[in-house]
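Next comes the chain:
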Amino acid sequence: MESELCEDNMKCKMLTESLDFIEEVPKDRGKTSHNCDICKKSFTRKESLTIHRRIHTGEKPYRCDICGKSFSQSHHLTKHKRVHTGEKPYRCDICGQSFSVGSTLTKHKHIHTGEKPFHCDVCGHAFSIQNNLTKHKHIHTRERPYQCDFCCKSFSKISMLTKHKRIHTGGKPYQCDFCGKSFSKNSTLTKHRRIHTRERPYRCITCGQSFSSGSSLTKHKRVHTGEKPFHCDLCDRSFSGRFSLTTHRRIHTGERPYRCDICGKSFCRNDHLTAHRRIHTGERPYQCDICGQSFSVRSSLNKHKRTHTGERPYQCAICGRLFSEGSSLTKHKRIHTGEKPFCCDICGLSFSSGFLLTTHKRTHTGEKPFRCDTCGKSFSRNQHLTRHKRVHTGEKPIHCDICGQSFSVGSSLTNHKRIHTGERPYRCDTCGKSFSRNDCLNEHKRIHKR
């Protein structure tokens, strides 16, 4: 019997210890079988039946002598121990990255090969790993059997419910061994560790840009393809990422589930809360490796780096203008479309971006959350605080590329450059005289009013 499954005893032993699959006996073979007395499944090998029965009994005979965690199969214990030892015996022969389990290496190799062997039988969508296909299928079935007993939200997988519950409980069981920061999800810790290691294993084959996570690469690729597969059922807007859709829908629902425990302010996105809390803590964990400047959020660092590289990867399909940020392109497009989707619920004024709406609302509330730590003066916008701080520091980081003169704010440079170009964009509609600055035009207009 065992000779049918393996060539020698060693191979047989390996099959036994790595038995994640359980081989059932085809009914037409008529050979000796081992039957489960609980669910009646049949198996070709007694060892397979023994492992299978642990599903019913909950038996976990293999115990880690370091942390006490128990497992139903010996090879699961072997894999687990590598968490403690740091052993990574499986190495990618393409990029050299190492992994603690063989299955993770197999999944990783799909990044290089582009292979997506798992196909959805409903829509044909392909995936590089089985787990992603399983998650995807819930879109079609809409089955969500696991309900949160705090907020009644339902989930398609118990692991998703477990992760979700940590929003309510504040549980963060995964700790970074570099900086001690804790996270509610292991995947978030893995991504976070790449801040320290600077690892970016996911590379775009179109433009060569590299990313620290597969999801970031997938989203980035849509910049090139223009694909927006996620549709809002309330306003018909489409998005390139599911997260963007979820965040967008909160404009309609008004939901702000993330609350600051210091000042009580609420946010529609967790990363906005994280960034906001750094106003209180002063933390700036993202540092530019070119000039050393630090930032409170990664996106600000990425934007800043483009001031060094001059990169502008986002192009308007209508006028051809280039932008360094995708959000700037989205806002710019509204100049062409006239779209103003963000409406003030106090005065009814509409805006082309959520940022403009948030800033506008402070005219009603009087809120000035950005405070100068030198003189105590407060501002309604962070950029106003940044400009103000230069009064104290004397910093003039913006330089004219023609004469080298320096300025503390971009608008001063724009006005200055018109000395070189002769540009006078502000025209008097009474006499036709033109000016390089708007304040000069306003001063001139007083002549006509006398």
